[in-house]
Design a protein that fits this description.
homotetramer, 210 residues, mainly alpha, Tetracycline Repressor, domain 2, elongated, DNA-binding, transcription regulation (chains A, B, C, D)
Amino acid sequence: MSQDNSKPPVGKPGRPRSEAARRAILQTAHEILVADGLGRLTIEAVAERARVGKPTIYRYWRNAQELAMAALMADTPLEPAAEGHGSARMRLQAHVEHLLETFTTVRGRQIAQAMAAADQESELAKAFRSRVILQYREKARSILTDAQANGEIALKTDIEVILDMLHAPVFYRLLVGHQPLSQSFGLNIIDTMWAALAPTNGRGATLPKS
Amino acid sequence: MSQDNSKPPVGKPGRPRSEAARRAILQTAHEILVADGLGRLTIEAVAERARVGKPTIYRYWRNAQELAMAALMADTPLEPAAEGHGSARMRLQAHVEHLLETFTTVRGRQIAQAMAAADQESELAKAFRSRVILQYREKARSILTDAQANGEIALKTDIEVILDMLHAPVFYRLLVGHQPLSQSFGLNIIDTMWAALAPTNGRGATLPKS
Amino acid sequence: MSQDNSKPPVGKPGRPRSEAARRAILQTAHEILVADGLGRLTIEAVAERARVGKPTIYRYWRNAQELAMAALMADTPLEPAAEGHGSARMRLQAHVEHLLETFTTVRGRQIAQAMAAADQESELAKAFRSRVILQYREKARSILTDAQANGEIALKTDIEVILDMLHAPVFYRLLVGHQPLSQSFGLNIIDTMWAALAPTNGRGATLPKS
Amino acid sequence: MSQDNSKPPVGKPGRPRSEAARRAILQTAHEILVADGLGRLTIEAVAERARVGKPTIYRYWRNAQELAMAALMADTPLEPAAEGHGSARMRLQAHVEHLLETFTTVRGRQIAQAMAAADQESELAKAFRSRVILQYREKARSILTDAQANGEIALKTDIEVILDMLHAPVFYRLLVGHQPLSQSFGLNIIDTMWAALAPTNGRGATLPKS
DNA sequence: GCATAAACGAGACGGTACGTCCAGTCTTCCC
DNA sequence: GGGAAGACTGGACGTACCGTCTCGTTTATGC
């Protein structure tokens, strides 16, 4: 099964979709998001400002939420930083701090909100989560498995839970707002987590290797 | 300094607000929330079903979101379970499992969504967070400080971060949905955290009390 | 440069306005007017009963008053009777009696009220006046000028004032209600006016011919 | 026969109505009428600006229209000018010109509108008509009957119709607005009417008796 | 002089309607 | 024959007033 859906190589009948319209829509959606926030991103407003018909928008996205996610994704990297150097701990700390930095912005809050508000089952929501969340998780996962291979750490419990405990606090503070997203926050997360991950041979939290 | 502003003991002029109307609104809002979800909670629908004028609703709440939060709050306990027994670890595990249980429901998802979607600055949103989130935190905090006093654990970093790492993963999975909110999830969180908190004496994360 | 904007013969983009919707609105408005009167003609009621969205109504008329006028106009002739026969006096009498007949109905009162209540400057109010009032005036004017040409009457003063004195009493009694709009009313108006219009050659209003 | 129903001299129990409140209401209503017109005269606005409770207003008037009429009546004379001098024609002309003058004002239009819009059957509407309309008619009637007694004119048809033809054109132009309410308008009405009223001895406007 | 009763201000009540915004769908032209 | 654009139906918004109804207060009369 080969796919030729990305670009119609053989003549599809009918008028081809206007790439200019698509770009204008995303551009306008992004402007509105930055200027007025998620709540003001209505299909109608986008259509008017992008000089585009509403059905043209609906042809690409099923509702305003999906458009918002698409606009937020199209915008800028969002990917975790490139592979760092140094010890696993340093690399993990850099990773969390990069996450913090990325989401400690107006856009960060918008992304978190969009994700929380979205229909959990929609295709785009999954893509969005994958893009925004899972990439960070995979990066962290590789750091952790590398570290385990090196003997730097011992993964005693489900690594998924470790990943949750590393990333969740950032989004939690972002959405709940009970505590600031300070610089030291990332450091503290790593400190705590490292205590849990340190390989031990005595009594305490962890089992001896032998 | 005594306050009598909560209940007007001395005569305020004008017809007093109808407590019956207020209750009917909250009751109806809650019914709609349970039956149809947050998206269907419109002021108009509540007004009609509660046999109440729309302005009466707006007198109490500024929009449907605030009403939703009020209805979710008025509903049921939401408080963390009463003080458990046994070791600190067992009590903390019971605490996290209770949190999991509470939010692994339709209503749990609704609460999380309402919180994520709400205007972060509104009075009611703050009250809601306080009610839903902070009570759990305070409960966990007291377990942790007790445990520290007993020497069961050693709090080496900011306790706020510890609390985040204990609670955030639940909401994270709830909103992002990348992994299930299984029973073992709570156990794994506690396992990992306990490794970080255990007092140790050798190298590694912690020192033993000895 | 020719204009073809009055009627779009060549394609305007977008869905054309639904003539069916427009007719349903006017039809419903008319039904409500007849059944319940001007005061009950609300946009909301019309929208609901005509199975039409409120914005569709507002796309054509700016408020309920304009809709009322449009409905009253669209309804039935409202025009003065066709040219009669006989002497100018007989034709003028028939004219006034037709006016009386037309407005001695529920609808007549409604029309008069709508006209009195309307914003004097609105486009539709002008059109309405033109349709309801001025057509009658023009008809009467032609009778009078014909009669003058024949020597049947002599127009000694401003013909506009004559027209006012012929028509105004009908609306006056309609709105004020101090006296009935009886059959003999029209006759009396003509009698009085004819005394004023009779051609004379001597002193006073009139002189015997011989 | 003495009446003591206007002011209760014998003791009615309870607090007497506040004349100050009544005056404040009428005063405020009048201010709003002059400043913003009939459409803005709401009970709520009057209550607020007059520092009065809404029920106090409803105690006197059944709705905003009645209040409007009351305010318009309470305002200024509205009566026809005192008896003039000179010939009947001169006095009648003065009368019509006074009517013109009175209603060629913002307030004139408001009065005419209020009268046209009012429930024809309500007590106050009747009183209002009586006050505004009938007083003028009675004045004109007395001029006409005096003139007939003097032989200045001959009333050949229903005097009510004559009165209508004298007064109606003013209100007609006021409400319909098809022609200006100029100074010469009154003169022309009188000219035309006088032609109809002149006593004759031959045939002409009227048929000789024999 | 003290109870009674009505009118007072204030303001919340259930409602109706407003005029607007936006969601999605439908219909027509144009490419 | 699909894309584009605008009018469509319809649901909800938040506001303005309606006319009614408590409230607690004030101000008279009459027991």
